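Lecture notes, unit on binding sites. The following record was shown on slide 14. It pairs a sequence with adenosine-5'-triphosphate.
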Amino acid sequence: MRLSRYFLPVLKENPSEAQIVSHRYMLRAGMIKQSAAGIYSWLPLGFRVLKNIEQIVHEEQQRAGHVPMLMPTLQSADLWRESGRYDDYGEEMLRITDRHGRDMLYGPTNEELITDIFRSHVGSYKDLPLTLYHIQWKFRDEIRPRFGVMRGREFYMKDGYNFDIDRDAAIHAYNRHMVSYLRTYERMGLQAIPMRADSGPIGGEDTHEFLVLADTGESEVFYDSAITDLRMGERKVNYDSWDECAAIVKEWTTPYARTDETHDGDLFAKVPQERQRTSRGIEVGQIFYFGTKYSETMDARVVNDKGERVPVHMGSHGIGVSRLLGAIIEASHDDKGIIWPEGVTPFHCGIVNLKQGDAEADAACEALYASLSALGLDPLYDDRNERAGGKFATMDLIGLPWRITVGPRGLKNGVVELTSRRTGESEEMTPEMAVEKVAAVYAALR
Ligand code: ATP
Ligand code: MG
């Protein structure tokens, strides 16, 4: 993309409504624009990151064997009356009446809808296990939408639902989700710690939330610092293996890690004192096992191998796709702007032309642009007629991990400058070498 042809409405001033850094930078970098309280338009740069995050979620879900689909945003109230949640859900649910006087709602979650789909089409244990998921906009009429996309009213969420024949199979689905979530967040350059949580309105016996540590997080968290040393890394996971998934879950759930809702002071006191940590965290996902709660009330049953009709065991599993942009920025920024992890960056590399209009500099930038593109990378070329200082400030603000700077002086010696956004370190090298280095970084990603 050439910046002169792009739409990147960068703000010079700090917007006064933004209380936290991620919201401030998302507005300043021209990623989002509020259209009503807690409702945002995704401008081109923000949209790119949103799609990158969504893509990682899709890849990791499908790697775990979960099946993508798409359910609508608007739902009929009748299904929610069946489960009993139409009245229970309260004012967070946006209720709508259509022209025929029928009660509708903008879905805050999809347990009812998916259970209805399941019961219409599946009747035998032979069709299990099954996990369906989608990534769709949700609406919750939050009393205090704030912090930009972090707590919106309209937000983008991955929600998945597993259907299993019995408790043990459903626990495997739970474990499989935890493992796939750990991989998902790691690919985004994030550490999200699974913490024992409270089940809330979805109800259930087993649930973990995934929290990104950040001072601006809304949850208070207590953990054993040993958990922050754990990594999924490059290990290959066989998602069909109950034992393998259970072992990984055990690894991550053995060190103490809980939110304030489930915090147990006596248990925490058993963690060696030098490893006890109290902090704040941003919830970027949650997994639930809730047994037969919906399948009993909504009559979602299958015939088991003894010929009996039994209610299926279910769980639901959510990732806050749009909230993740805020969480990643909270975890990765400095005083100049965002620092995108390579896994989600909107463009792989920036190209800054220090002397637009200089034939040699222009040609060198075009050549870099062409070689990066030919390797399947998306560069952002700042080809505007602007001062170098302004171009650097924009690049730093929007946070691309790599920048290649091209100027007539360097070109006389056959070199350009490659700069890492994270370390700030620059190195001179030939344009070919710069392209090779950038390409190697991205080739190493999973
Ligand atoms: P919270 O406790 O933050 O209100 P929740 O527990 O009600 O969230 P879930 O039902 O667990 O939310 O939804 C799954 C994920 O969707 C959450 O982990 C979070 O990342 C995201 N999410 C929930 N509410 C919002 C919101 N208002 N704005 C943006 N993302 C949200
Ligand atoms: Mg939650």
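Take-home: The chain has a mean pLDDT of 96.
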